[in-house]
Design a protein that fits this description.
Layout (H helix, E strand, L loop, with lengths): L2 E4 L2 E4 L3 H12 L4 E4 L4 H6 L5 E3 H9 L4 H6 L1 E3 L1 E6 L2 E6 H5 L4 E3 L2 H14 L3 E3 L3 E6 L7 E5 L5 E5 L2 E4 L15 E17 L8 E5 L2 E7 L5 E7 L10 H12 L11 E16 L2 E2 L2 E3 L5 E2 L7 H22 L3 H28 L7 H14 L3 H12 L9
Parallel strand pairs: 1-12, 2-3, 2-13, 3-9, 6-15, 13-20
Antiparallel strand pairs: 4-8, 5-8, 6-7, 10-11, 11-12, 14-17, 14-18, 15-16, 16-17, 18-21, 19-20
Helix pairs in contact: 1-6, 1-8, 8-9
The structure holds 8-demethyl-8-dimethylamino-flavin-adenine-dinucleotide and P-hydroxybenzoic acid (PHB).
Length: about 400
C-alpha cells in the first residue's frame, strides 16, 4: 500500500520554477511538497542560465534570497553588440532610466532555493521514480511517486503545479493544447572555462561564420557559446578548435583577445521556440519550461519561469486565503501575454544575430541593417534594452 498524505500544492520538479513556488507559498502560509526525479547534486550542477533581469533580482531580494546573489552576482549596466568586426555598447541604465541585469548562475539560484526550503523544514523529495499526476479535474488531484528508498507515496492535493520542464509529465495531461513551435537550424555549443573574462559585459557577436556569445560566471570563470549545426558532434570540437573559433568570431582587428583557460564543461543545446496554451487544466497549472521554451539569445527562459511562478503564487494565495479563483482563472492568459512578448524578443534577437545556413545575401543584409539600427537609434536601442532588462516585471504580494 502506498503511504498516503496530503498537502495544499503538489509541485512536480525541483528546478528554479518548482523551488521558488514552494518558497513563495511557504511565505504565504501555504503547504507544498516538491517531487523531483533527479538527485539534489544533479539539480545543483546542471549548467544553464546565467542572466537575471533587474525585476528578477528585486524579486529574489524581496523574498529573502538576496544575500549570496548580492555578494556574488555581477551587476552589468549593459551589453556589447558586435557585427562586421566592430563592437558597440548599449548602456541599459541610461536607456531605461536605471535598469540593469545581473550575472548569477541558475546553479547558484537552485542551491540557494534548496538551502532555504530545507532550512525552513520544506518537503523536497529528490531521486523519485514513477512520478505521476491524476484526477486534475476533480477537487482532489493526486500526486504519486516512489521515493529514493523505493517506498510508494500518494499525496492528495488541492492543486498541482507542473514545474517539470520541457520533458515533464504534466503538460501532456492538458487536453486540446495549442502548440506553437519553431525549431531553428542551428544550436549552441557552450563551454565553461577557468579563465578570467577579458570583457566587463556580455558580448553578442554576429560573424559571417556564425554567432558567438561571451558571458561569465565570476571574475575567474568564463561562459562562452558558439553557433554550430543542430546535430553537431561534440567530438569534432577539441578545445583548440573551440578557442580558435571564439578568437575569430570576437576579433575586432585590435590587440584584444578572448582569455583562454581549462575547459571544465562542454555541451550542445538545441534552439527552439515553443508555447503551449492553455497553461491550466482544472486544478493543474503549468509554469516555466513545462509550458514554454525560448531560444537562449534573449536570456529570457529563467526569468520567464520565475515570472510565471510569482503569478501562480499570487493566485494560489488568493485561492487558499480568500477562497477566490479570480487570479487562478486569469493565470494562463496573464502568463501567455508575457510569454509571447518574450517569445517575440527571443526570436528577434536570435534571427538578428545568427547566420542561418540557408540565408541568402538579402537576409544577411537585413539582419546587419537591423543591428546597425539598434546601435545607432536611441529609440531602437531603448526597445531592446527595455525587453532585455525585463518588460513589466511582476510582483509577489507579500
Ligand atoms: P527546469 O530547470 O527544466 O526544471 C524542471 C525540473 O523538473 C524535473 N523533472 C521531473 N521531476 C519529477 N518528475 C518528472 N517526471 C520530471 N521531469 C522533469 C527536472 O529534472 C528539473 O529539475 O525548468 P524550470 O524550473 O521551468 O526552469 C527553466 C530554466 O531552467 C530555463 O528556462 C533556463 O535555463 C533557460 N536559459 C536561460 N534563461 C535565462 O533567463 N537567462 C539565461 O541566460 C539563460 N541561458 C538557458 C540559458 C538555457 C540553456 N539551456 C541549456 C537550455 C542557456 C542555456 C544553454
Ligand atoms: C549565460 O550566461 O549562460 C547566458 C547569458 C546570456 C544569454 C544566454 C546565456 O543570452
Amino acid at each position: 500500500m502506498p503511504v498516503a498524505s496530503r498537502t495544499q500544492v503538489g509541485i512536480v520538479g525541483a528546478g528554479p520554477a518548482g523551488l521558488l513556488l514552494s518558497h513563495l507559498l511557504a511565505l504565504a502560509g501555504v503547504d507544498s511538497v516538491v517531487v523531483e526525479n533527479r538527485s539534489r547534486a544533479y539539480c545543483e550542477a546542471r549548467q544553464r542560465a546565467g542572466l537575471l533581469e533587474a525585476g528578477t533580482v528585486e524579486l529574489l531580494r524581496s523574498v529573502g534570497l538576496g544575500e549570496r546573489l548580492d555578494a556574488e552576482g555581477l551587476e552589468h549596466d549593459g551589453i556589447y553588440l558586435q557585427f562586421l568586426g566592430e563592437r558597440h555598447h548599449l548602456d541599459f541604465r541610461a536607456l531605461t532610466g536605471g535598469r540593469w541585469v545581473t550575472v548569477y548562475a541558475q546553479t547558484e539560484i537552485v542551491k540557494d532555493l534548496i538551502a532555504a526550503r530545507l532550512a525552513a523544514g520544506g518537503a523536497i523529495e529528490f531521486s523519485c521514480t514513477d512520478v505521476a499526476v491524476s484526477d486534475v479535474t476533480s477537487d482532489q488531484p493526486l500526486l504519486s511517486y516512489v521515493d529514493s528508498s523505493g517506498v510508494a507515496h500518494e499525496v492528495t492535493c488541492d492543486v498541482i503545479a507542473g514545474c517539470d520542464g520541457f520533458h515533464g509529465v504534466c503538460r501532456p495531461l492538458i487536453p486540446g493544447l495549442t502548440i506553437s513551435e519553431r525549431n531553428y537550424p542551428y544550436a549552441w555549443l557552450g563551454i565553461l572555462a577557468n579563465a578570467a573574462p577579458s570583457t566587463d559585459e556580455l558580448i553578442y557577436s554576429r560573424h559571417a561564420d556564425g554567432f558567438a556569445l561571451y558571458s561569465m560566471r565570476s571574475p575567474e570563470v568564463s561562459r562562452l557559446y558558439l553557433q554550430v549545426a543542430p546535430d553537431e558532434p561534440l567530438d569534432q570540437w577539441p578545445d583548440e578548435r573551440i578557442w580558435a573559433e571564439l578568437q575569430k568570431r570576437f576579433a575586432t582587428g585590435g590587440a584584444w583577445s578572448v582569455s583562454e583557460g581549462e575547459i571544465t564543461d562542454k555541451s550542445v543545446t538545441a534552439m527552439r521556440s515553443f508555447v503551449a496554451a492553455p497553461m491550466r487544466h482544472g486544478r493543474l497549472f503549468l509554469a516555466g519550461d513545462a509550458a514554454h521554451i525560448v531560444p537562449p539569445t534573449g536570456a529570457k527562459g529563467l526569468n520567464l519561469a520565475l515570472s510565471d511562478v510569482v503569478l501562480l503564487a499570487n493566485a494560489l494565495r488568493a485561492l487558499f486565503k480568500d477562497g477566490s479563483w479570480e487570479l487562478a482563472d486569469a493565470y494562463s492568459g496573464t502568463c501567455l501575454q508575457r510569454v509571447w512578448r518574450c517569445t517575440h524578443f527571443s526570436w528577434w534577437m536570435t534571427s538578428m544575430l545568427h547566420v542561418a545556413p540557408d540565408a541568402d545575401a538579402f537576409e544577411s543584409q537585413l539582419m546587419l541593417s537591423q543591428l546597425g539600427y539598434v546601435t545607432s537609434s536611441r529609440a531602437a536601442a531603448q526597445s531592446l534594452a527595455e525587453n532585455y532588462t525585463g518588460y513589466q516585471p511582476v510582483r509577489f504580494e507579500l
